[in-house]
Design goal:
This protein is mostly beta strands. The protein is built from two helices and 29 strands. The protein folds into two domains: 15-392, no CATH class; 405-497, Intracellular proteinase inhibitor BsuPI (Immunoglobulin-like). The protein has helices at residues 46-57, 162-165; strands at 64-71, 76-87, 93-101, 107-117, 123-132, 137-149, 152-160, 177-186, 192-200, 209-219, 225-233, 238-248, 254-263, 266-277, 283-292, 295-307, 310-320, 324-335, 341-350, 353-364, 370-379, 382-392, 410-416, 423-429, 433-441, 446-456, 459-465, 478-486, 489-497. The strands form three sheets. The chain has a 22-stranded antiparallel barrel. It has a four-stranded antiparallel sheet with strand order 26-25-28-29. The chain has a three-stranded antiparallel sheet with strand order 23-24-27, with no helix packed on it.
Length: 499
């Protein structure tokens, strides 16, 4: 009989899977657009997602993001943080700078990050330095080195400084020390076979990297992930720890994630997530069940509601001993005619009714890029300003997906993954044209035809992609190519997709 456990989402059994980070990323970015979701105790494919997602986030981001807080006394906005990106001619970020507004009414650089890329525009090194007031200078904060087998990430190697020192004696060491190394082995079909994770032994000098976790992946005949076996190092050998098994619907969407623990030389059910979808393959229910007394027991669930393909409500409920679902919190979203997110309202369930807590309001520029977010808190039965995020976009940056402006047809092409779970291309035309857009994998195989000879007008045009192939199944994370045909002009480019 399985052990009776108290489940807590705050305790992660595999700590190595959640310590992956990439240099510096914006601290306040698209707050409204982050869809609420539970933290999975095990995140499959975490290091590839963590690395590329944070790099990719910057590709469509502004060159500057100003964060201000509301001064209730002066009834005005005050500067707080400023984030600045510089890009190269391929629109890869080459530097990131975080500034803090000082009491002298000036901006103080506090964190700077530099990015280095290979010929395939893949990041190879990300280095950060932090301002140390006692030194009146910048000192090393962390360094990430990435190596590849073709386009596949082979080694993730991170070093940092404060990891060993703690905040009370930060930067007392003159050099960076090892922190994490993840080595990935790949199958010939481009799927990962094994991740070997090493973390630093911080208990004993000289603080070397030691074995920590190993993840072995197995696949179905159609190369969809079947299971992930997690093993931990006990000091002398690898010991089975947890297994994650996936089940799929006939259309390729995931129907179940089953988590099992290794106990007494056998796999014992621990918990599972069950998914329900609508006709558009969008998740409508994310149900968590615990294994107790040889049976599954409902624990909590997330319910998703959509209107015209846009997520309009997320409701979180917990199942209590009263044998009923009880509301906990919800997010409600509204959109404009162009499917841009306008408002997000967060409410908590209190004494049988919904109580306002947080509200976000967004505005956009003519290109459909977010221009401003205002976050408000509910106080004394009214919305009170809290924080404001202002986005600026450089005019001299060459987008990696740009067309030939001299042709007089295409002014700009960009790839957006924020706002909703879906992705989209934005094509800015200088004159009406007939558009075709196809997605290919790196081997040149057609993945999806998004539109064929569709007439579009002058200005910004949005072409959505649910990140599925022509067979209706979600495509895997990785590098893809697109071919955009505008009348007789063909534009090609590369995009990175991470789930």
């Amino acid at each position: 009989m399985a052990k009776n456990r108290t489940f807590s989402r705050l305790v992660l059994p595999i700590t190595a899977l959640v310590i992956v980070s990439v240099g510096a990323e914006p601290l306040y970015k698209n707050i409204m657009f982050k869809k609420p979701e539970r933290n999975r105790p095990v995140s499959i494919d975490v290091q590839r997602t963590a690395i590329f997602e944070k790099i990719r986030d910057t590709r469509d981001d502004p060159t500057e993001l100003l964060t201000q807080t509301w001064n209730t006394t002066a009834q005005d906005w005050e500067n707080f943080l400023n984030e600045v990106y510089v890009y190269d001619q391929s629109f890869n970020p080459t530097s990131y700078k975080l500034q803090v507004w000082t009491s002298d009414n000036t901006w103080q650089d506090t964190l700077v990050t530099t990015y280095t890329y290979n010929a395939d525009d893949l990041p190879t090194q990300i280095s950060s330095k932090l301002w140390v007031a006692s030194l009146s200078d910048f000192d090393d904060y962390d360094n990430l080195t990435l190596t590849y087998n073709e386009e596949y990430l082979k080694v993730y190697y991170k070093q940092d400084n404060f990891f060993y020192q703690g905040w009370t004696s930060i930067f007392t060491s003159p050099e960076l020390k090892d922190s994490t190394r993840i080595t990935t082995q790949w199958n010939t079909d481009g799927t990962p076979f094994q991740d070997s994770i090493e973390i630093v032994d911080s208990s004993t000098a000289p603080y070397n990297l030691v074995n920590n976790t190993k993840i072995r992946y197995s696949y179905n005949p159609d190369t969809t992930l079947d299971a992930a076996l997690i093993e931990t190092w006990d000091g002398s050998a690898w010991v089975p720890s947890m297994k994650v098994t996936l089940k799929y619907n006939t259309n390729g969407t995931v129907s179940e994630e089953l988590y099992q623990e290794y106990d007494n030389n056998s796999w014992v059910n621990y918990y599972r997530y069950l998914y329900t979808y609508d006709a558009n393959d969008s998740v409508t229910k994310d149900l968590l069940q615990l294994w107790e007394n040889d049976a599954w027991r409902d624990f909590d669930q997330m319910l998703y509601t959509y209107t015209n393909g846009n997520l309009t409500n997320v409701l979180y409920q917990m199942y209590y001993l009263t044998q009923s679902w009880e509301n906990q919190f919800q997010y409600t979203y509204t959109y404009d005619a162009n499917n841009n997110l306008l408002t997000m309202v967060y409410q908590i369930w209190l004494l049988g009714s919904w109580v306002n807590n947080l509200k976000g309001t967004a505005t956009y520029n003519a290109n459909g890029d977010i221009k401003e977010e205002i976050m408000q808190s509910w106080y004394a039965n009214a919305w009170v300003n809290a924080e404001k995020y202002t986005y600026s976009y450089g005019t001299g940056i060459v987008n990696p997906f740009n067309g030939d402006a001299e042709s007089g047809k295409v002014a700009h092409v960009s790839w957006h993954t924020h706002a909703t779970a879906n992705a989209a291309f934005h094509v800015t035309l200088l004159q009406p044209a007939t558009i075709s857009l196809d997605i290919y994998d790196v081997k040149g195989n057609l993945v999806r035809s998004l539109c064929r000879e569709k007439k579009m007008g002058t200005g910004n045009n949005r072409i959505p992609w649910k990140t599925t192939g022509d067979n209706g199944r979600p495509v895997a994370s990785g590098i893809y190519l697109y071919k955009l045909t505008v009348d007789d002009l063909a534009v090609a480019g590369k995009i990175h997709l991470a789930r």
